Amino acid sequence: MKKICVADIKDRDQVEAVFLVKDKIMAMAKNGKPYLTLKLMDKSGEVDAKVWDNADEVGALFEKNDFLAVRAKASVYLGKMQLILSELKRVPEETVQLADFLPETERDINAMVAELHALIASIRDGNLRQLLEGFFRDPEIMALYRVAPAAKGMHHVYLGGLLEHSLSVAKLVEAIVPLYEGLNRDLLVVGALLHDIGKVREMTFMRSFDYSDEGKLLGHITIGVEMIHEQIIRIPGFPTELGMLVKHMVLSHHGQYEYGSPKRPKTIEATILNYLDDLDSKINGIRTHIKKEPDNATRWTSYHRLYDRYFFKENGLPEESAEPHDLIEMIDPIPEPVTTAAAAPTSQSPSEQKGRERKSFSNNPFAALKGENLDLF
């Protein structure tokens, strides 16, 4: 049987492969019989799996973060792929390549590192530039910053995710600054690059993505402020108030107390950072949710528990046109209208054209959901 990765699994496939156990839960069926629910992963994605028979005995053979060689039957259930496991065997870590099991950014990490250093070089404030250089010229910090994920489950959950997310927020900063007078661009760029710096110590990502003891006890915001303070005191004459403004951006970037912010944003720059961080994380989180369901043929995603909603996947653009626009183009003035030649006449009659329009447009956007649960909100 040909080995297969998660992204290539199709409905009714017979699967034989090695996966990393991301989650393992023992549950009880309505008839009182125990069963196992697993989340298996490789670098291409993750898939739910079930063990219905002899769950107690099978569950004793492995733990979360172990590698399993499995035989299974694939099936689509409620729009999501799942595996029904018939055989499994724990595989020693030394027999696998860890790089095959953790997802990574689609961007080139070395290119992103070059982009990071170009941003640092663009900082005009000498104190802020020294602060960034203190972090990103440290080989130990940089080795972690370039490969760390940005989160465990919400957004940018892949190797290189922290660097990608931080650069994305910095790009949003560059787009916003020209629109408003009097913003401290350097301070905002520093906030973009350092707001999640504590995640290099909050998270573990050498096997699967999880939280360190320090991360669970302190959290990345507290860790990040400590790291920034350690760097600031090494810079002679660093202005006390400037250091306070940098720390405030980190302390408040989650926006609200209930979202884990010790402080709410109380400067213009901190407020902007909060919204841009939230914007980039949500866009990535929603796109990732949609990508995880290639076998869902409906126009709606499955329910997203953390966002507490379903998402409509259409946006009015044909697929080939749904490409990201350059941020600079987005803020350029609208060009003058261009006169074009008249379209070539069609050989179809008006009634034929009308018929084609009817076929390509439906005033019932839920037609594809016939038979599904329409209680979407």
Automatic annotation (TrEMBL):
Could you state a single Gene Ontology molecular function term?
hydrolase activity
Gene3D superfamilies reported for this sequence: Hypothetical protein af1432, Nucleic acid-binding proteins
Xref: SUPFAM superfamilies:
HD-domain/PDEase-like
Q: Which CDD domains match?
A: HDc, YhaM_OBF_like
Q: Does the keyword Hydrolase apply?
A: yes
Biological process terms from the Gene Ontology for this record are: rRNA 3'-end processing
Determine the domain of life of the protein's source.
Answer: Bacteria
Coiled-coil segments, which residues? none
What are the UniProt keywords, alphabetically? Answer: Hydrolase
Domain HD: from-to ranges: 162-282
Family annotation (PROSITE patterns): HD (PS51831)
Keyword Hydrolase among UniProt keywords: yes
> Which residues lie in Low complexity bias regions?
337-352
Q: Where is this region: Disordered?
A: 334-377
PANTHER family referenced in this protein's UniProt entry, alphabetically? 3'-5' EXORIBONUCLEASE YHAM (PTHR37294:SF1)
Entry protein name: HD domain-containing protein
Protein's organism: Geomesophilobacter sediminis
* Higher taxonomy: Bacteria, Pseudomonadati, Thermodesulfobacteriota, Desulfuromonadia, Geobacterales
